[in-house]
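#onboarding

Welcome to the new folks! Below is a worked example of what a typical request in this channel looks like: someone posts a single protein sequence, and someone else replies with the predicted structure as tokens. Don't worry about understanding the tokens yet, we'll cover that in week two.

Example request:
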Amino acid sequence: MNAFILNFFFKIPIWILKIFYRKKPPYRGHLFDTQSQALISLQPFIDLTSLSDSEIPNIRNLIIKNRVKQNLSISPNNYVEKVDHLVGKNKILCREYIPSNISSNTAILFFHGGGYVLNSVDTHDGYVSYMADSLHAKVYSLEYRLAPEHKYPDALNDSIQAYYWLIENGYKSENISVCGDSAGAHLAASLVHKLAQINEGQIPNSQFLIYPMCDPDCKSDSYNFLSEGYLLTKKTMIWFWDKFSNDFNNINDQAFNLLKLTPGIKMPNTIIITAGFDPLCDDGEKYAYLLHKRGDNVKQLHYPNMFHGFVSITRLKAAKIAVDDFLGEYKKII
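Example response:
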């Protein structure tokens, strides 16, 4: 979809969209946001599951270019400086976002979503810029290696190197927060799980997980009821997990399956974001309950009319309201 059509779309009053778009069935007593429904219906459908491994890199690059061109995120209110760094032995790109106003000494290590197969630092550049400006904090966005070229635990190893790079550059663990959306949220939590195993004193002070991937089983009620029609499908999620998994049995690895968290390991302050029309909703809620039951400090923020991916589409009115709300909560813990 080109920029002209998108700009026209976002100028259409929502009451007009309600005339032309029949409401989807309510789920758990809530209706899907009309503007979100309309935008999703205009997006071209790509059946990723039909791609061979050799085709994925080219399709990924096309998707990244299109998403950057679409520019579905609103711009920050103030100027945000960007500085690119190369970190770790593999010289992974880590983009530093420096807002005009900094009021927090916490560094946020951010991981983009995309099922460990898609997207990049560039696809999330708009949202991360907005986040840095809103939080008045520096954000470091990592271009971790993607599947199927790089399977588990390659991305996790990249995140560990980026984390220790921050420490080497003057940040203490208590002044680092990890954040991500979808696969990026899984990677943030995976990093915390691994750090807690190898050196509990080095875990970050908080984690902010936006509709996280949690369990490769993909059999929850939300997966089944919301299996298609809401941008992310159950079929695609199963495919993402398959591309990310290596040839070994990861199912009981707590850094791979977040719901296998080992008792006794203390987790940092945690906020988990869930969306009502997201197949991953139940998994995120289950992970939040698991942390609560263990006695960890966790808060779940639920947006019942939103969908998986809304964080990067803040030109949608309801998405911006949700993002501004949860960034306000995040600011309280960094």
